[in-house]
Amino acid sequence: MDNANVSLFAQALGADWQKLHPTVRRHYDIRPGGALSLRGEMTQVYHSPWVKPFIVFARLFGALVPYRGKDVPVEVDNFCKTDSHHLHFRRRFFFVGRKPYPFNSRMEHWGGNEIVEFVRFGLGIKMKLSVEGDVLRYQTAGYLWRTGLFNITMPDWLFFGSGQIVEHGVDRDHVEMDFVLTHPLFGTSFRYAGRFKVNP
Q1: Is the pTM of this model over 0.90?
Q2: Which class would CATH give 3-199?
């Protein structure tokens, strides 16, 4: 495979890339210089009451979403810069009575089937990708803090717990996703679930 001409997710999944539902594959087939948008609705945006004291830190790092809601409109713009395979996510959540809330991140291929999603100040979450049937699954594998000199790895339980994202194709234009973080002591900490239309 010529890595210069494939997407980050195709690199990470290897032969399993072709097993994905065509709409999920279209969502992530973004190569250097490419872009794609999704428009849809989160049927649920939830965080547990025990998380509230830590929300201020999550906001500082630009990680996760500090509000709760149902049927929340969301816009997502994905792109790769012309000289990079890193996949950028620009998300906007439209909660009733609030300004649009941005949640931005950047994904990098870390080797094998592993990627890292970075937010501000070099904080990232490591995730392993797999394909089950034609469904894409992310499974967290700890946190990473990238400093100027070295990388510090941290276990899932130190923050909000381990997580998984499942994304499956509904039809030729729509995908559904479900994201959950679960702490081994405190249970579910965050959950998002929604349906999106994949636009060219």
Answers
A1: yes
A2: mainly beta
